[in-house]
């Protein structure tokens, strides 16, 4: 899809993009994984990103979350051109990413997981300091109940939680730190139907909190249940971009 | 109550502690009480700091998800460097300082090769084990250099306290253990260590500077090994080219027996100390009960297997305890 076309799309949706990507390319040595992506993501919308394995979905979001630099192209975030050099920088901008497996550290407690690399400190010297455990505990309890996750105690070890609860912890973290954009890369893979529904309801809940959500999945049904808009990718390009209300599943599948 | 029961089942320090109590009772009975005599405890606690300090560094590095098999060689090389400098007329303080810097340097090489060149630390540090041992032999010049008599032994190995019960090295062990323990369990850096070892991809994605965290752990581990080597050398009043031989496996054994996970992310400083104490207790107990000392390695090996099996069994048992939501 050309950049003019996506600009037109944006205009329809009330043109206030939080992220604008222009002519984004990514090469992995020999592989041309992104071949000129133009995409506007509107503030507060929930966008579903679909496509077969290898289409380039993860590559696109890895660039947005600071894991890899793009080979070329521009990213405008919140009206400013940005270079996202590290995950830390993405977080600072307000872009939080939840991956299928590595969103939490199973051997650590829920509270500690919520605050990894952003621990509330009692005092610190040069960035190192003593954790304010009381505050961490209290804020963790609040963060969990804010997303409707009712767990016994934030001191429980994450390895004891189900897959859906683990994703809930990661979502609670993003909400607690007031991220503007929440990216979920295949958050429902290997989850039971019940847990998948829980995650989908989390994604739906983003909208009411004013958070922009990017939901990646190769399950079109999950995307249609939880998103306003669907973008389909194939072989490093965007091949379809439509409002969920305007398409049927069969039409979407025909693009892939 | 049930939650407390569950948590203590899953506390990985428990099997080590239980073993410690059992062995102390057994050795006391079979040695007719000599084992718990003041004189014998003084001997055990006098040697504990050397393996204990090494084990703390090894345990923290293991929690960060990496191994150091070169600690035994560092344990020998660092005091050897110090003594060679002193034999060339250097004073204790500068020789000690340079030797410590070399210790840190060994850790940084381990970190660089492992993290930048992407080699498993098991292999990197196995290579360093041989290289540093060889260097130790080379710089010793084939004969053990003398340690001058004016070194500040009071600061490292002299006895002190009521009945001269403790060595100065024990104070070092306590200070290092407290600092390391606070760092690991209460500081943000400790959180990053556990995250890096527990799930490195998540840690990195969440903004933990994984490379820096692991590098500091490698350097700290080597520094502690070198420091412990200096303590042993001052206690024995000599460095040999074989000093620290086998220390790496004892330190890993101590950590594992105490409940540190081999795959990273799980463990405490206290674990390493329990494990180290167990090894000292076995060594000493076998001698006191006149058991053939060749059983020492057998006993340590059995403890490792027992501790790991017990731990994984308790973890599963703990998981099955349902706590009301
Ligand atoms: N780290 C990487 N190194 C080399 N090639 C990669 C890397 N990540 C992805 N690729 C390649 O880039 C293409 C797009 O992959 P990816 O973005 O993971 O697709 P998706 O998430 O849509 O399945 C694939 O051909 C994949 O093999
Ligand atoms: Mg993917």
Biggest sheet record of chain B = 2 strands, antiparallel
User: Which regions of chain B are unreliable across 5 or more consecutive residues at pLDDT < 50?
Assistant: none
What is the assigned CATH homologous superfamily of the largest domain in chain A?
Answer: P-loop containing nucleotide triphosphate hydrolases
Integer-rounded radius of gyration of chain B? 20 Å
Summed up, the helix count of chain B is 13
- Overall shape of chain B: globular
Count of helices of chain A? 9
Widest beta sheet: strand line-up of chain B: 1-2
Shape of chain A: globular
What would you call the quaternary organization?
heterodimer
The CATH architecture category of the largest domain in chain A equals 3-Layer(aba) Sandwich
The CATH class name of the largest domain in chain A reads Alpha Beta
Q: What ligand species are in this complex?
A: adenosine-5'-diphosphate, magnesium ion
Query: What is the count of β-strands of chain B?
Result: 2
| Spatial separation of the terminal alpha carbons of chain A | 14 Å
Q: What is the count of structural domains of chain A?
A: 2
């Amino acid at each position: 899809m050309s950049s003019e076309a996506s600009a037109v799309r944006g205009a329809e949706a009330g043109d206030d993009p939080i992220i604008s990507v222009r002519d984004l390319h990514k090469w992995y040595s020999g592989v041309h994984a992104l071949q000129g992506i133009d995409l506007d993501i509107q503030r507060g919308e929930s966008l579903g990103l679909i496509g077969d394995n290898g289409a380039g979905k993860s590559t696109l979001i890895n660039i947005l979350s600071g894991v890899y630099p793009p080979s070329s192209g521009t990213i405008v975030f919140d009206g400013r051109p940005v270079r996202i050099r590290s995950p830390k920088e993405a977080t600072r901008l307000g872009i939080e990413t939840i991956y299928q497996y590595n969103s939490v550290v199973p051997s650590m407690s829920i509270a500690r997981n919520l605050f990894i690399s952003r621990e509330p400190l009692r005092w610190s010297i040069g960035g190192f300091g003593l954790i304010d455990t009381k505050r961490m505990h209290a804020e963790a309890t609040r963060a969990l109940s804010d997303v409707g996750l009712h767990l016994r105690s934030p001191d429980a070890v994450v390895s004891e939680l189900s897959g859906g609860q683990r994703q809930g912890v990661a979502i609670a973290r993003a909400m607690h730190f007031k991220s503007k954009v929440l990216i979920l890369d295949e958050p429902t893979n290997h989850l039971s139907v019940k847990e998948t529904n829980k995650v989908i309801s989390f994604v739906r809940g983003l909208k009411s909190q004013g958070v922009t959500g990017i939901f990646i999945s190769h399950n079109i049904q999950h995307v249609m249940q939880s998103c306003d808009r669907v973008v389909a990718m194939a072989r490093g390009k965007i091949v379809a971009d439509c409002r969920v209300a305007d398409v049927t599943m069969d039409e979407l599948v025909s693009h892939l | 109550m049930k939650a407390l029961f569950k948590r203590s089942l899953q506390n990985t320090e428990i099997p080590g502690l239980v073993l410690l109590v059992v062995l102390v009772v057994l050795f006391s009975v079979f040695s007719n009480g000599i084992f718990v005599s003041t004189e014998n405890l003084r001997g055990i606690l006098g040697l504990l700091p050397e393996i204990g300090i090494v084990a703390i560094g090894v345990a923290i590095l293991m929690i960060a998800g990496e191994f150091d098999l070169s600690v035994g060689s560092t344990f020998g090389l660092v005091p050897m460097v110090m003594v060679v400098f002193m034999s060339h007329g250097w004073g204790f303080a500068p020789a000690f300082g340079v030797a410590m810097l070399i210790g840190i340097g060994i850790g940084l090489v381990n970190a660089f090769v492992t993290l930048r060149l992407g080699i498993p630390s098991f292999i990197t540090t196995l290579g360093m084990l041989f290289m540093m041992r060889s260097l130790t032999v080379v710089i010793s010049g084939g004969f053990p250099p003398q340690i001058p008599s004016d070194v500040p032994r009071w600061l490292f190995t002299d006895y002190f306290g009521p009945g001269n019960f403790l060595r100065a090295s024990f104070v070092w062990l306590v200070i290092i253990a407290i600092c390391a323990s606070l760092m690991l369990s209460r500081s943000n850096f400790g959180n990053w260590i556990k995250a890096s070892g527990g799930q490195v991809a998540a840690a990195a994605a969440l903004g933990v500077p994984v490379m820096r965290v692991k590098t500091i752990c490698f350097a700290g581990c080597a520094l502690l090994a070198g420091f412990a080597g200096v303590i042993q050398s001052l206690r024995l009043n000599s460095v040999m080219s074989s000093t620290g031989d086998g220390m790496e496996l004892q330190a890993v054994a101590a950590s594992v027996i105490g409940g540190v996970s081999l795959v990273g992310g799980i463990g405490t400083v206290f674990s390493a100390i329990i494990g180290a104490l167990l090894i000292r207790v076995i060594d000493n107990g076998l001698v006191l009960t006149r058991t053939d000392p060749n059983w020492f390695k057998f006993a340590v090996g059995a403890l490792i297997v027992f501790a790991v099996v017990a731990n994984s069994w308790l973890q599963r048992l703990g998981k099955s305890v349902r706590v009301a939501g």
